[in-house]
Design goal:
By secondary structure, the protein is an alpha+beta fold. It is 21% helix and 27% strand. It contains seven helices and 14 strands. Strands 9, 10, 11, 12, 13 and 14 form a six-stranded mixed beta sheet that branches. Helix 6 packs across helix 7. The N and C termini lie close together (8 Å).
Length: 314
Amino acid sequence: MSSSIFETNSPHDEPSQLTAFSINTLDRRSEHRNEGELQEALKSDNTRYFAFAQGNALVKNGQTILTLSDIEPFEPDFENAAIIGWTHDGGARITVSIDLEEDQLKDDLQLLNPRTIYSDDLLEGDLLGQLAQAASINAWINSTMFCGKCGAKTMPKAGGYNRQCTSCERPHFPRTDPVVIMLIIDEEGDRCLMGRSPHFATQMYSTLAGFVEPGETIEDAVRRETLEESGIKVGRVRYHASQPWPMPHTLMIGCIAEALNTEINYDSEELEDCRWFSREEVAHRLQHSEGDDRLSPPKGAIAHRLLQDWLDWR
């Protein structure tokens, strides 16, 4: 058994599969799409829909995968819809915007954001992963209606999975924003670093995180963000897991990193507090990871996965 967490993949071969939004068995056919398949899918009785209003998913009787008759009353914008993939039996899954306000909701309808759907355990596994993809593509479409180069309108291509400017013909492709999220380890003290953001639940602490900047490696992003937020210098960095995070189209890149010093000097504009936690403290906090009074990130969050795997890797 390795004596260092930086020399092993334990305790899981692919911990990404244990995070929320990560399982998605749809066949995306990203490189094998034709221009007529969206219209073909819209005519098929086997097609099902994820519908969104202002970034919130339409939920009917607890279901987010809807039929055409479910969404037709809300003027779906099929002109700017997109096929996100196909099921094993060939049924298409389409993401589409609808015109629906909260005050129009009936008893069997809800508008919920993906974070709420995940945190309230309304979906799990494959369906949650499909929802993440649908939400991210829908958000990207709504932010790419006009060309960033010339300002003209864009039009869907390849079943809506990319777009093209109607004037300068510049192509636009789905966007993913990379974010590093890192568990900083003091190996000698056998403890880890966590911080508190102002928007967290009252007593909750979590791992540090930040966007990867242009021209920056994942490892250097971990080192820069950790130093900026906590004053801790980082040596070794090991990738551990990743998680799609549809708020709106982020990829969380989970890493474990080695602290080279232990004196904390945190950025008070970013964090309310930052401190070291022992294994016993982390174990206690992970046992209280649900509800408004939670002490740690909830199960399914990659921060929870990083913390739990640090406890379990031995």
